[in-house]
Amino acid sequence: MSANTTKPEEKGFFEKVKETIEEFWDGTKEKAEDIKDAAEDKFEDVKKAVTAKKATAAKKVTTAKRVVANKAADATTQAKAAVKTVKAKADAKVTAANAKAKDETAKAKKAVAEVKAKADTKVKAVTTKAKADVANAKKTVAAKATKAKNTATKRKATAAH
User: Fold this and answer.
1) Where are the domains positioned within the chain?
2) Between 76 and 52, whose confidence is greater?
3) In which element (H, E) is residue 2 found?
């Protein structure tokens, strides 16, 4: 009899368990690779979505920065305009005050000049009157002196005769 039999060889219990474990292992390996591929795809999709949202958020932030900068520039411009307006009003008031002060000074100088002119006129009038009075007094004194001299001469002459 030969050692070769025509019947299929029966496998033992452990060999069957080993084959079953190998089948599970291969199935698990394939499933793990499928899950890995799906996870990579999902990761790429999420990455693209996050990148798009980041870009949108960056655009929104940039837009907000621009809006804030524009508002700040507008506020600065308005403040500068207000300062210019206030300065112009202040300059106008200062100019008006200076003009009024010059006008008042001119009026005061004119009044002083008028008072001085009146005083000079009165001084001249008083001086003229005083000179006239002195001249009259001198004439009167001279006339009286002449009369007294004449009277004294007449008395001497009468006394000498």
Assistant:
1) 14-118
2) 76
3) none
